[in-house]
Design brief:
300 residues, Aminopeptidase, 13% strand, zinc, Peptidase_M14, zinc ion binding, protease, metallocarboxypeptidase activity
Length: 300
């Protein structure tokens, strides 16, 4: 699958067109909104199979980490194509697994942030002056949403610990990265994802980030015992390293909250190697490692 969509930076217009294409092209796909961003952009999900016992894959939490957006769409379309052809990728018996357990894809949790990074401050609309004041006109490393809140620091899992750690680095106010907001779930994007997880109760979640080719699976005493084995399986399939995030990345993330809230497995995959934002021409190589890992997770 090498069409133009996977060779360009994703934008809100192109991702919306892709959702529409998937909804029309694949009868097995259920495309629906889970909420809206601060600036009113829709946050869409794609469901395949049994949605009440699914693996939920989330991309685009950080604006510059677009490999997760493209990877989420790419794997979703591979699954949908395979359901029609009966030939499943990566030598996995996904057909039966999807019928029993299903997959939920949220390719871009942070559409406002992605637009800011790709399109500049004018895409912030009424928040243009606010964003400009907090980025100085440089959005090349903008990770946050339109309010300058880093969504992966806004979940209710060690939030106060994370805030203290971030403040020790000199960050107290909204900006490009790491500021976690005034309180947990202060942002519509994180509230939408939490409500979605409570409604659909996924059996496990996968957060796609960049970069480092690492796998994180632990958070506190409710980490399921089987998660360590699954993480090692993923590492053997994709060539990644099982690791534990440290410092300001060790609390308040989506995976952290899901494990603490439910006691079910949560994984973060740090896709690709290099410095964010990763180059477009590196996506295909990164996906060759990511695709098989997502296939394993879909049947795990």
């Amino acid at each position: 699958m090498t069409d133009l969509f996977y060779k360009e930076y994703p934008q809100y217009t192109t991702t919306m067109a892709r959702f529409a294409r998937i909804a029309i092209r694949y009868p097995a796909a259920k495309v629906f909104s889970i909420g809206r961003s601060w600036l009113g952009r829709e946050i869409y999900a794609i469901g395949v199979g049994n949605l009440q016992s699914a693996t939920c894959i989330v991309g685009g939490t950080h604006a510059t980490e677009y490999y997760g957006v493209l990877g989420c769409f790419r794997f979703c379309e591979e699954v949908l194509e395979s359901l029609e052809s009966g030939t499943f990728p990566y030598d996995t018996p996904m057909g039966k697994a999807i019928g029993e357990r299903g997959l939920l894809f949220i390719p871009c949790l942070n559409p406002d942030g992605l637009e800011l990074w790709v399109g500049g401050v004018d895409t912030a609309g009424p928040l243009r002056t606010f964003v400009f004041a907090h980025c100085g006109g440089d959005l090349s490393h903008w990770q946050a949403n339109a309010r300058g809140v880093d969504l992966n620091h806004n979940f209710d899992a060690g939030f106060d610990i994370a805030r203290r750690q971030v403040e020790q680095t000199g960050i107290y106010l909204p900006g490009p990265t790491k500021y976690g907001g005034p309180f947990p779930f202060s942002e519509p994007e994180t509230r939408a994802l939490a409500d979605f997880c409570r409604l659909y109760a996924p059996r496990q979640v996968v957060a796609l980030h960049s970069q480092g080719e690492e796998i994180y699976y632990q958070y506190g005493p409710r980490t399921p015992k089987q998660s360590a084995l699954v993480a090692q399986m993923l590492a053997s399939v994709g060539g990644y390293r099982v690791a534990q995030p440290g410092g300001t990345a060790s609390h308040a993330g989506f995976k952290d909250w899901f494990i603490q809230e439910t006691g079910r497995p949560g994984y973060t995959l740090e896709v690709g190697l290099g410095e964010n934002p990763l180059p477009l021409d590196g996506f295909e190589g990164a996906y060759q490692k990511l695709g098989p890992m997502l296939a394993v997770l879909s049947i795990a």
